[in-house]
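Q: How would the structure tokens look for this protein?
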Amino acid sequence: MFKFLIEEGKNILEKDPAAKSLFTAMFFYPSLKAIFYHKIAYKLYKKKRFVLSWIISQRARRITGIEIHPGAKIGEKLFIDHGMGVVIGETAEIGNNVLMYHGVTLGGIGGEKALKGILP
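A: Here is the predicted structure in token form.
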């Protein structure tokens, strides 16, 4: 996991001109925290440990303001700059070397299910 933190910290240094050092990128950027939590939640989700994966996912959301569904598929070197309001849904698939800014929602398919007797 420490190797992951170093690689993602270097990615932040490359993509954010405001990043001053590897230490600050690794320990103070919310996007790296959110992605770190997501890696753990995703592994649990794949093992069908849904409740535990959701607990970890929601903790990350409270801490970072970035909501990532435990089932979302995320490649390497995702950097979310100013991540408040970012929502990545279960159906999202994000490739490698992606830079994302605030206020983005990914993964909605528009096929909401109606509740019987409430919605048409």
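Confidence is low (pLDDT under 50) at residues 114-120.

Strands lie at 66-68, 73-74, 79-80, 86-88, 93-94, 99-100, 105-106.

Upvote if useful.
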